[in-house]
Structure formats: structure tokens, C-alpha cells
Specification:
By secondary structure, the chain is an alpha/beta fold. It has 12 helices and 17 strands. A hairpin with a 6-residue loop joins β13 and β14.
């Protein structure tokens, strides 16, 4: 056996030791609603009424503080402040501020915990999304779902521990691409990578048997192949061969479990009324939210939805309205549905993008139109469900929504907190690779105790 594989297998086996875990888990699984392209916190959850007074006024240097800009606005000669075109109101007993763009989310505001002071170093999409998925800006490290699959395993032997779905929004249809490596396993055994559910053809690639090839034939083929792989495993000790054997078995079991999972014919009309008409359209965000609930019911450990279209550099008012229509009802319905079924208390739901948007206008500012550039200094995510204190807003940004005033939360801190709700101490979920113990939070991260119960 190669030294790397031996050390990795020892690390995995040691995860059974309860000393490696933190407090008792409040959540058993996680659903991550990743809003790719970076939603504007100014138009959604971080209400800044004084911006109306400063519309069109140059952003003060004392606020900007010489912070770096992207190449898209660094050559602008002016940085005029632009308030949100959309109204805000308080909702629920918590009095959370929510934009008029998100009326369904507003109805579940008391179930949510808003973190308004998230920040990151990355200022461009790919490194920022990669950072959120892997804890590092460069590609190659395991994704958060792979870490959880490695550390906690699966509750359902017939489905993967980590499932991914991708949808395209109607906001910015030319938004940044998403690569399969974002749900990859990095240097962890490849059985921990995410399995992508598709909306066209087989839900999972090669799920169906070829014409003329019956289930019994496939069973015999897999058994014969397993014997050959087992011989090679005993000869070389290569743990990737063991992974290959396990994945063939999983693929065979999925031939029965996935069609049942994706068949919505048994869902009552009340379900589609809750999630909205788009839930009947395979591959839509609403349909994926419904599928996320079905996966959670079946014990899938980590479910991740990627929804593209939030990159509003220009024509923001028009685009963000469309993007919110795509996502608002589905997100809120998922929270409501999980709660009705008694699943919310042990399912952690996360909503957010890779960074925020600037308070100043990108491009030409008009009475009806404006755009916003990338802003990594402060932005908002929300959490709900297992292990989270509902009905609160944590952290405060300045009146320009440009800098953090109190309680900053770094991406590494968020990761540490998410793992904590699942009972995992982020400093102890490690894997030795090339002579170093790696973890999702690298050498950083602290638990944000104020947001967990």
C-alpha cells in the first residue's frame, strides 16, 4: 500500500473516535443553496435607508479606504453611491429587514439567522466560489461536501452521501460557468466527490442499461469486474481500486433508488402549490429545492444547489427581479416543507453567494438603471434549521454597506460553524497529504458561537 493511502485510511478510521468531534450534533445533514454570481446584499437583506440621502454622491475616500477594485471599475473616474431601487420592511417577531423582492422569504424570516458581515479575500468569481467550496482559492482541494462525506459517511447505502444540482437563472444568462471540480474530492478518495443529478436524460450518467443488457447481466458484469479489481487491489494496495469497487456497487444500487427519488408523481398538489409552478419543470431552481427535500428525507448527507445568474454588473434592477422570482418561493418553500415534516430541526440550510456587491454604481447611473461591482468586504448569508439560533441578525455593516462595524465573519469562520452544527470540530477533521495534515478551514477559522444553539 502506498504511504499516502495508508495514512489517509488511518485518518478516516480514526474519525470513529468521539474525541475528534466537538459538541453533540444538532444537524444530521446540510442543504446548501449556493447563489452563484453574488447576490447584492443591498437589494436583499442589508437595509441602508441613509443611502437615499447620498444618491449620486461620490463615495467618500474615508469609506473606501483605498481598498482594491476589480478591473471592471478600477478605471472609473467616479464612484457615485446608488441606493436600492426596492423597498424594505420588517417581518416576523424578529423584525428582520427583507426586500420586497423576496416576499416568500419574508414569511419565513423568523426561521432564519442572517449573518450580515461575511467577508472574503477573493474578488473575482472563480477563486471566490472555489474558496467557498474548498477553503482555498486555487483549485485542487476537497469540496465541503467531500469533507463531510469523508468525515461522516452516508445514512443511505443506496444513495451517495453528496449530491449536486445546477440551475440557470433568468437574471444574467451569461453568468460565470460552474465547473465539476467545485464538487470534487481533491486529494480525498474519489468516492467522496459529489454526484451530479441531471434534469435531461438519465438523472445520473450511465444509470440505464444499454439496449439488450438486462439487470442480471449488469449484476454478473459487476461481480466479475469486482474479482479482477480485488486481485489488483491485493497486488498493489492502491485504495483508489477499493473506491472503484465501491462506486460500481453504488451505481448498481442507484439504478433502483434514483428513479424512485426523481419520480414526483406521488407528490400531492399541495407540494406544488407550496413550491410554485416552476417545481414541475425539471432542472429549475424550485424543482431542485423540492428534490433537495426528497434527498434529505432519504438521508443524503450533503445536498448542494448551485443557481447561476446573480452577477449584475449592469441592468441590476431588471436582472435581480428576475433572479429573485426564480429563487424566492423555492427557498422559502424548502424551509416550510422541512419544518412541516419535522426535518428542519436536524437539517441545516444555508443560502448565499461568493461575495457581495458595491454600494457605488458600475457604469452609467440613471434614474432607472444601475449596476454594482464585486464587493468581498461585507455581504449577507442566511442559515436555518439544525443547530442555528433562528430569528436573529448577526453583525453590522456601516451606513454605506461597505465596511464591517461589528462581528466580522470570515469564510473560514462560517465553515467552522457549519461543521460544528454537524458535531464536527473543524480543527480535527483532517487528511494527511504530501506530508501535511489538511482541513477545510486550513489553519484558520473560529466558531461563531452567537449564531448556534
Amino acid at each position: 500500500m502506498r504511504r499516502r493511502d495508508f495514512l489517509g485510511s488511518v485518518a478516516l478510521a480514526s474519525l470513529g473516535n468521539s474525541q475528534l468531534f466537538g459538541a453533540a450534533a444538532k444537524a444530521k445533514r446540510m442543504i446548501y443553496l449556493f447563489q452563484s454570481g453574488a447576490p447584492s446584499q443591498i437589494e436583499t437583506f442589508d437595509y441602508k435607508p441613509r443611502l437615499m440621502e447620498w444618491q449620486g454622491v461620490e463615495l467618500p475616500d474615508s469609506v473606501r479606504q483605498g481598498q482594491r477594485l476589480t478591473g471592471m471599475t478600477s478605471t472609473q473616474s467616479s464612484f457615485p453611491v446608488v441606493p436600492s431601487k426596492f423597498g424594505f420592511a420588517r417581518h416576523g417577531k424578529s423584525g428582520a429587514w427583507v426586500s420586497e423582492l423576496l416576499p416568500h422569504t419574508a414569511k419565513v424570516a423568523d426561521e432564519l439567522c442572517f449573518i450580515k458581515t461575511l467577508h472574503t479575500e477573493a474578488i473575482n468569481h472563480d477563486p471566490a466560489i472555489t474558496f467557498f467550496q474548498t477553503g482555498f482559492q486555487l483549485a485542487g482541494r476537497p469540496s465541503i461536501g467531500a469533507w463531510l462525506s469523508y468525515g461522516l459517511g452516508s445514512e443511505n447505502k443506496d444513495l451517495p452521501a453528496y449530491v449536486v444540482m445546477v440551475s440557470q437563472g433568468s437574471g444574467n444568462k451569461g453568468d460565470q460557468p460552474l465547473y465539476d471540480r467545485l464538487w470534487g474530492s481533491g486529494f480525498l478518495p474519489s468516492k467522496h466527490q459529489g454526484v451530479k443529478l441531471r434534469s435531461v436524460g438519465d438523472p445520473v450518467l450511465h444509470l440505464s442499461n444499454p439496449p439488450g443488457f438486462e439487470t442480471a447481466d449488469r449484476r454478473q458484469f459487476i461481480d466479475d469486474l469486482k474479482q479482477l479489481n480485488q486481485m489488483k487491489l491485493e497486488e498493489t494496495g492502491d485504495q483508489e481500486i477499493a473506491t472503484r469497487i465501491a462506486q460500481y456497487e453504488m451505481a448498481f444500487r442507484m439504478q433502483a433508488s434514483v428513479p424512485e427519488l426523481t419520480d414526483l408523481s406521488g407528490e400531492p398538489e399541495s407540494t406544488f402549490a407550496l413550491y410554485g409552478p416552476e417545481a414541475r419543470k425539471p432542472g429549475s431552481y424550485a424543482a431542485n429545492c423540492l428534490m433537495a427535500r426528497r434527498l434529505a428525507e432519504r438521508g443524503v448527507r450533503f445536498i448542494q444547489l448551485f443557481h447561476r445568474g446573480w452577477d449584475q454588473h449592469n441592468h441590476l434592477p431588471e436582472q435581480i427581479q428576475a433572479q429573485c422570482r426564480d429563487t424566492d418561493q423555492g427557498s422559502a418553500a424548502l424551509i416550510t416543507d422541512l419544518k412541516q415534516r419535522g426535518l428542519l430541526e436536524d437539517t441545516l440550510v444555508v443560502w448565499g453567494g461568493e461575495f457581495g456587491r458595491t454600494v457605488y454604481c458600475q457604469g452609467k447611473l440613471t434614474k432607472e438603471d444601475y449596476g454594482r461591482d464585486h464587493h468581498p468586504r461585507c455581504f449577507t448569508v442566511w442559515l436555518a434549521g439544525g443547530g442555528v439560533k433562528a430569528g436573529q441578525s448577526y453583525g453590522e455593516t456601516d451606513e454605506y454597506c461597505y465596511n464591517i462595524v461589528s462581528n466580522p465573519v470570515h469564510v473560514h469562520d462560517l465553515h467552522a460553524t457549519l461543521l460544528h452544527t454537524l458535531g464536527v470540530d473543524h480543527t480535527k477533521l483532517t487528511y494527511k497529504y504530501q506530508g501535511r495534515h489538511f482541513r477545510l478551514t486550513d489553519v484558520h477559522g473560529k466558531l461563531v458561537r452567537e449564531v448556534v444553539s
